[in-house]
Design goal:
single chain, about 190 residues, mainly alpha, Lysozyme, two-stranded antiparallel ribbon, 9 helices
């Protein structure tokens, strides 16, 4: 078992499926005692990104239309879109989980490329991967948020998450909540 799997297994039992900092510390102590390794270095951002993505995307095993447009892009699993995803498509949980793993790795690589050598904490990268997963790597790469982060203006960068709360030109309450959670993680909080 990995530490990320432990946290994912326990999350449904947390109030509103959210961990407080003391919960994370307690789970880390248990994982340490059981010999479950920490995600240090290159992949330390992964639990933050996965927690945000899973919390706000949810998992649906039957394709559904985009909530903002009522149509394209059709979505399935943990927010997957793209070729072959259309009305009537169904996946197994294993297919949804495998696609999430593949997509998060791709978005993590894309965010790393966009960040270059900018100093970035695991929480900051996890929040930015969650954002990029939702808005696309192209939009993320051209964002003011990224420019401010790379300039070391982290407080201003955190404020930029809130600008990405619209779909089809309308403010979406779910996106407003997601951006607030991403900004909180970016600032060092826990998803």
């Amino acid at each position: 078992m990995t530490r990320a799997a432990l946290f994912a297994a326990v999350r449904p039992f947390a109030p509103q499926e959210r961990f407080k900092p003391e919960d994370v510390a307690d789970l880390d102590r248990i994982a340490d005692r059981w010999g479950i390794g920490r995600l240090d270095g290159e992949y330390a951002w992964l639990p933050h990104a996965l927690a945000l993505i899973k919390q706000f995307e949810g998992c649906k095993l039957t394709a559904y239309p985009d909530p903002g447009s009522g149509g394209d892009p059709w979505t399935i699993g943990w927010g997957a879109t793209g070729a072959g995803i259309k009305r009537g498509v169904t996946w197994t949980q294993d297919e949804a989980d495998a696609r999430l793993a593949k997509d998060v790795e791709r978005f993590g690589d894309g965010v790393s490329d966009a960040l270059g050598s900018a100093a970035t904490t695991p929480q900051q990268k996890g929040a930015m991967v969650s954002l990029a997963y939702n808005i696309g790597l192209g939009a993320f790469a051209g964002s003011t948020l990224l420019k401010l982060h790379k300039a070391g203006e982290h407080a201003d960068a955190a404020m930029q998450f809130g600008r990405w709360d619209k779909a089809a030109g309308k403010v979406m309450p779910g996106l407003t909540r997601r951006r607030a959670a991403e900004a909180a993680v970016y600032r060092g909080g826990v998803a």
